[in-house]
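Recall that a protein's primary structure is simply its ordered list of amino acids. Everything else, from secondary elements to tertiary packing, is in principle encoded there. The following example makes that idea concrete.
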Amino acid sequence: MTMEINPSLLAKSNLSILPKSMIQHDGCEYAAATTQDGLKLAVVPLSPGVEIMDFLGDKFQFQGCSGVLCKPTHSNLAALQARLPWLQPQLLGVKTSAGMGDRLGLATPGHVRAIQKTGGTIAPIFAQQSIREMARTGRTPRQVMDDAIWGVFQEGWRGGFGADADHLKTPEDIDHCLAAGFTFFTVDPGAYVNPAAETAGLAELKQMASKLPGDLQLDRNGLLNQSITLESTSIYFDETTLLKAMVKYGLAVWDVVWMYRHLQFSAGSRPFELEVSVDETDQPTSHAEHIYIASELKRLGVQWVSLAPRYVGRFEKGVDYLGDPAEFEKDIAGHAAIARGLGPYKLSLHSGSDKFSIYPAAMRQTKGLVHLKTAGTSYLEALRTIAALNPSLFRDIYLFAREHYEIDRASYHVSAQLECAPMPENEMDLPDLLEQFDAREILHVTFGSVLKERTPGGNFLFYDRIMAILTSRPDAYAANLERHFIRHLEPFLS
């Protein structure tokens, strides 16, 4: 049980304690402390005989008390998690939720503050990173989880949080993220979506559909010549409509089924949640195709809490929605009716950061059955912080990003043009680059190159300097994140 003891023992020490982190629970007091070697975890038993041997660090003494001051390593954070149950990721169900990716491992304090400032009613996912992002940043699932746990602890957040292993494509991806403690698994079968279905004729559709696995054949799904009405959305599955959905998404459905079954087996008795993502495709997901996907997944025994279709318009990285907001609202209204009727499950907005023009419509039409997923926008706020604190470094990063954009853009749906991205004439112009469409996307998609580039001598070109500035001024970064994410969260408040 949590005990309130006043005054705090650690407050009497000579340590520079982060006040929000202090907690007394089951015979010990814990806090994050600022030291010359960075933030460390301080642990003090509240009475004789209370063991703290599971924490590895330096012993310290003050006023007749003794404790341990240790680095936030994985083993120490695992020991902290075992003692403080609110540091364990939780299932979020169908609550309105927001995922907040963190490419540097320093953003969680700012994310927590934004959640707190907006009332704590939106369920947060603080540990979130895709396999693609991990590869480009050189981070592991365990590091992503540890950084989020440490940030949650620093801010004293006890309201629960989720952990999203994002855009998983292989069973090995699942296993790595399970081992790290993730609870929310986003399966991405985009490689199996067949765009040829969009233009194929009936005869060709029949031929392609005949090659699908036996469990997916036309006579198995029961949709042919059926009229499906979900609220104001009504779809008639004639042969062409059904075959088009089958050919386009059949193998993607099959991939989700097999990934889900692997997840079930590997997780054993551990509870988990599944998200299905088909957003990274060239063509929008029609309402008929959404019904087909959901109906087939249900028939084949898959359970999920959210689904990310490909909506009309464009969801490019780090910029507002590109398209007609009225058309988007009409589109998501149909998807939301399907999600309520065949679930309920949430609709997920992937590449959802900075889409301020369509957030109210998304909330309005989903009636709160919605998940907002962001990632790179937190990295851009890190660059905003760098631009204010070290303009010269930010300029160098921007020039480097321009040089690497044409290569790095290949795996993203972006439309920024180098010739449209301005060249700053003086330091006063640098922060404005983060408000300019082309410059913003260029900075966004080149994060991997920026963070991993090394000098001929083997040292990081930018990474160490970025981290040194942000860790020396954590409140500056957290303040930028808090401001930015309040804008994201407010439209989703019930």
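The mean pLDDT is 96. The domain at 87-377 is CATH 3.20.20.70 (TIM Barrel).
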